[in-house]
Here is the input.
Amino acid sequence: MPEPVRPISLADVEAARERIRGVVLRTPLVRLDLGSDGPDIRLKLENLQPTNAYKIRGAANAVAKLGPDERARGVWTVSAGNAGQGVAYAARAAGIPCAVVAIETAPQTKLDRMRALGARIVPVSYAEAWRVAEAHALDGMDGTFIHPFDNHDFIAGHGTMGLEILDDAPDVATVITAIGGGGLITGVGSAAKALKPGIRILGAEPETAAPYALSLREGGPRRFADWQPTFVDGAGGQSVTERMWERMRPIVDGAITVTLDETREAMRLMAEKARVIAEGAGALALAAALTGRAGKGPIVCVVSGGNIDLKRFAELVA
Here is the structure.
């Protein structure tokens, strides 16, 4: 059974920063030049991590916290690709076996990279993967389960990004991250609000998968009945779980829903202006900032990942 939900403390995050030092990069924060009339937007480039996505932060912390018996059993996770790569990378560095219950529609690029990192792939449907995420279990899987978002140590690892953001941009007014399961925004927001209580933390979701915005409107965790799979495969879940609602509600100040066209435009703009390759989920935060609904800034947009086939990227931004 999963442990009870508890707040992510600043001490948790600071300890995680020391624990993952040497495995995880301290990624740069760069200003996006939108002209004198544009909003003040800075990009937190998590696409530059060794696995090209932020999930390595949480994975490295969670694996480092395992005891000898847990390590001996090996680890497994469920993932659309980025969490799987993060856990596989951390497991390989620790010398322990890893399996990934992978969504069968995950991009081939992500599947290939998980295998290259030594992970055994167990393909399942998106619906089955979401059931595993909600149940924290799957019949036939051995080893220690590392949840890709509903795990205290995983979330604390993501919080290290919040420490870096406030170090590099103490004047930041708003931080925007994509919302998938909710672990990223909970970790970053917990650390940022501990250091700067008045900061705004906003989530970004695609119009085809926006359960958190729906949950906010209706006052409780909801399932998104009109969910559709798209190129934004690393964010936008089918629902908000009770546990993640409990984690996010005290931290997140709002959610911005963006269209797929706005997401593609954000991908194109980052490539053109900053030479940054972002996957769909990695561009959601910028797409949200460009709507104007986050204010003039300073705004930090987390570019959560860049794991996308270059041919597919070119098709989307052309």
